[in-house]
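[Discussion] Sanity-checking designs against the backbone

I'm trying to build intuition for which residues belong where. Below is a structure token string of 693 positions. I'd appreciate it if someone posts a full sequence so I can compare it with mine line by line.
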């Protein structure tokens, strides 16, 4: 990335669109090989702030000029945790810095009212090296229109629900990072890393609702206004000690990691302009206030050892222990006739604590000849889990399980610039707090959602085949993969006969998911003026659930193309466009998306100052997304229309010089084991990834 001129003023989310096998859709959701189930790493270590619900906002707040490379790792090796389905996107910050200091400051603003800025600084004096950055972003999305219709096939009185309204979102996000390395001598190296992330978003909604019976008559109607405050955050502290020997490439590493991720939500809803109040069911809450405090904390200790044997062989081994705790606490209130908030009894709450003890050991072997590379390994991993409910002890339960996880990767160098690689690995994915949390979000009383604390880890078999070619003018990366999961965690919606007017959404190990995909990244640089890049792929997905008696299958794909033109006097023009076909879901479908944009950059002051003017979706003021969900009991159809045309200005200034490199430890903790976020996911692995831009 540090060689791409666009990185001087863009953010990391913008640059991810160019990375092989990675795609970013029109709603800024990141996918790896067509799936949201993967893991983000920062400098080879998993980062909670990049694997939560709002990863797109964080990536937009990270300036690309502080990033050295982005790696895609598709074939996990034995030393990585067994969990993680899709793979790893590893973001490596600029750290090969030299003695002295250097840094940058940047700022940006857009016509939606968003603005932000950041600073990056690295320095080395004697044996101590320091790298740090801080970024602030104030995010605004104007009002967008929403519509939905919900048909209920088992309740003729409350047959059709119509909703029309609008919503907007604002947020503040701050991120800081500090890394320190101290080289005691040529064989002993200490490293300390601290990553801090804090964010808060505010959502305001206005909705008009009416309920019709099967004959078309109106049963009741009202206007519902809502406001929600959502707080996110994480703190990751890593400490590593690396011991080298006189034997080249022999390393012993001892690592400790503490991580905590508080997440909170507080939302209010108010009802006015009620007609037909006597027909509103008693279980429908009108004015309500929900407060949920959810958080995750974990301690990890890891030991790694690797050593070469002769010139072509390497062996590695290690041990690891993780203590992870998920906690959720809920308070709920209803408004009485006098307009005062009244706290509900604890019998309505689902406060719980989920504790996991994870222990693992691994051994691996690698062989590297002139043209042939081979890596294999076996990981043994055990888990003990306890779930405790604060107000209903009868629901407490625990479980233990053990997994032996093999992996193998073979590569062959066809020519100096061409490589062929094949691999297989078994992966598992544990559900994170957003999947486990039984807190009932009933802000919309007709469409409630909650997690499932009894979820089991997914198990996935993944096969990869990759071909890469690199030359000064042409780069080509083609990847094919096949994966299947027999107990995949799927989000599903149903209607309970006791509450026939309420659709309930939750998660369960109810899916059988097969995916076959082909992904292409191609770059062409015919001369010094023009650079063209294409990134895209296609998947065939087959989803089945015996529990729901449901299935869905089909093709979906995406494509993204960018063209960079370098002009005299340090001017550059960049144009891009992308397309996503509809999603394949177990109970529904989602409409296609497209987006485009253009930017113009100019360097000043001997390329230390860069100014960029850009416009996203210049030919489209609003973009509309459609989707539907259905079963034998209901049919739901919805649409969202948001403003997408925005002009932005970005300014970046770089300063300082360096002369001597900062040394970093080569291994650390990688907790790539949690299926994170209600829609996002996790992945894991190493051993022959496809490099990014």
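Best answer:
Here's mine. Compare freely.
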């Amino acid at each position: 990335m540090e060689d791409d001129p666009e990185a001087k003023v863009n953010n990391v989310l913008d640059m991810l669109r160019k990375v092989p096998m990675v795609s970013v859709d029109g709603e800024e959701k990141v996918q790896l090989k067509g799936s949201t189930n993967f893991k983000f790493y920062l400098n080879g270590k998993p980062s909670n702030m990049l694997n939560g619900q709002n990863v797109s906002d964080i990536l937009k707040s990270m300036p690309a000029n502080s990033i050295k490379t982005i790696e895609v790792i598709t074939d996990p090796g034995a030393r990585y945790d067994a969990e993680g389905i899709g793979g790893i996107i590893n973001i490596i910050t600029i750290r090969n810095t030299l003695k002295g200091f250097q840094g940058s400051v940047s700022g940006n603003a857009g016509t939606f009212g968003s603005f932000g800025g950041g600073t990056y600084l690295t320095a080395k004096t004697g044996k101590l090296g320091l790298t740090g950055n801080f970024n602030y972003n104030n995010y605004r999305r104007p009002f967008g229109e929403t519509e939905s219709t919900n048909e209920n096939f088992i309740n003729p009185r409350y047959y059709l629900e119509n909703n029309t309204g609008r919503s907007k979102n604002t947020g503040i996000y701050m991120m800081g990072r500090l890394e320190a390395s101290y080289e005691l001598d040529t064989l002993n190296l200490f490293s300390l890393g601290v990553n801090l992330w804090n964010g808060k978003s505010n959502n305001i909604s206005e909705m008009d609702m009416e309920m019709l019976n099967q004959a078309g008559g109106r049963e009741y109607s009202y206007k519902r206004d809502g406001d929600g405050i959502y707080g996110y955050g994480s703190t990751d502290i890593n400490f590593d000690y690396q011991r080298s020997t006189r034997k080249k490439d022999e390393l012993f590493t001892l690592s400790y990691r503490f991580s905590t991720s508080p997440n909170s939500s507080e939302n209010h809803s108010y009802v006015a302009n009620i007609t037909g109040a006597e027909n509103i069911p008693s279980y429908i809450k009108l004015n309500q206030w929900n407060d949920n405090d959810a958080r995750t904390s974990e301690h990890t200790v890891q030991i790694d050892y690797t050593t070469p044997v002769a010139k072509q062989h390497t062996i590695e081994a290690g041990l690891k222990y993780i203590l992870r705790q998920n906690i959720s606490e809920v308070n709920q209130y209803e408004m009485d006739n006098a307009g005062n908030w009244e706290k509900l009894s604890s019998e309505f709450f689902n406060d719980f604590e989920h504790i996991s003890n994870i222990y693992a050991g691994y051994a691996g072997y690698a062989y590297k000849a002139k043209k042939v590379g081979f890596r294999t390994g076996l990981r043994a991993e055990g888990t003990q889990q306890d779930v405790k409910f604060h107000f209903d002890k009868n629901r407490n339960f625990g479980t233990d399980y053990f997994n032996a996880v093999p992996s193998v990767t073979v590569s062959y160098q066809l020519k100096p610039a061409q490589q062929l690689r094949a691999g297989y690995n078994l992966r598992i994915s544990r559900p994170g707090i957003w999947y486990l949390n039984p807190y009932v979000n009933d802000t919309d009383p007709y469409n409630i959602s909650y997690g499932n604390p009894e979820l089991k880890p997914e198990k996935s078999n993944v096969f990869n085949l990759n071909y890469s070619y690199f030359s000064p003018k042409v780069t080509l990366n083609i990847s094919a993969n096949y994966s299947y999961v027999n107990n995949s965690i799927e989000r599903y919606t149903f209607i309970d006969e006791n509450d026939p007017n309420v659709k309930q959404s939750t998660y369960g190990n109810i899916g059988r998911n097969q995916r076959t995909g082909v992904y292409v990244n191609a770059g062409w640089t015919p001369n010094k003026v023009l650079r063209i890049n294409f990134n895209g792929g296609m998947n065939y997905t087959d989803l089945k659930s015996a529990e729901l008696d449901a299935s869905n299958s089909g093709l979906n794909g995406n494509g993204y193309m960018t063209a960079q033109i370098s002009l005299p006097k340090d001017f550059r023009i960049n144009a891009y466009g992308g397309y996503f076909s509809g999603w394949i879901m177990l109970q529904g479908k989602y409409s296609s998306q497209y987006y485009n944009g253009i930017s113009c950059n100019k360097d000043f002051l001997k390329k230390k100052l860069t100014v960029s003017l850009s416009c996203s979706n210049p030919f489209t003021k609003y973009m509309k997304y459609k989707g539907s969900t259905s079963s034998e009991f209901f049919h739901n159809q919805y649409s969202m229309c948001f403003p997408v045309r925005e002009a932005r200005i970005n300014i970046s200034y770089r300063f300082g010089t360096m002369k001597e490199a900062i040394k970093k430890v080569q291994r650390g903790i990688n907790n790539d084991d949690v299926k994170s976020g209600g829609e996002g996911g996790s992945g894991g692995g190493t051993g022959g990834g496809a490099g990014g831009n």
